[in-house]
Amino acid sequence: MEKLRTHIEQVTPLSDEEFDYIKTFFTLKKVRKNQFLIHDGDEIKHEYLVLQGIYKVFYVDNDGKEHILQFARENWWMSDYTAYFKQQASTMFIECLEEGEVLSLTLLGREKLAADLHKMEHFFRVKLTNGYIALQKRILLLLSSTPQQRYEEFSRLYPDLLQRIPKKYIAEFLGVSRETLSRLYSNGGK
């Protein structure tokens, strides 16, 4: 649970008593490689904080094509947020790409923490705002840049992920073919 405390304290300091209360809302879950945390159609009761591992959050369209919305790594949050906040069935999948661990938090737990501790309301607002900003940047990058520019930006922001994620998933995330990614990768993005 020390990772959780460190993660929260990057946004707001906590007393020992506050953290003792906060940690009661979280459940540790070990996740195997290739295990799914969420399937399309699941009732979504949790959001997850990644303690260890890499996860892919994706959607499968009517033609069976996979669309990766997010990779989540250590200290990142993930869920099907539409389903989580609206308490409805998921339209997404979350798959673990490496052996991992997550902390899960229910919506009821999140709401109670935010109501009981202003620090946690502030923490969740900061995390949600940062996630929204990252999502907007990703959408703009997909809409207005070349494959080379998308690859360069991904490489700049997440150099460690290039070694941890299979190239076919990186290509999918960037919206390019596997062949295009291989060409960009072998040219160092140039």
Automatic annotation (TrEMBL):
Domain of life: Bacteria
Residues forming coiled coils: none
Residues in Cyclic nucleotide-binding domain copies: 29-106
Annotated Pfam families: cNMP_binding
CDD domains from the UniProt entry: CAP_ED
Gene3D superfamilies assigned: Jelly Rolls
Stated name of the protein: Crp/Fnr family transcriptional regulator
Organism: Terrimonas ginsenosidimutans
Lineage: Bacteria, Pseudomonadati, Bacteroidota, Chitinophagia, Chitinophagales
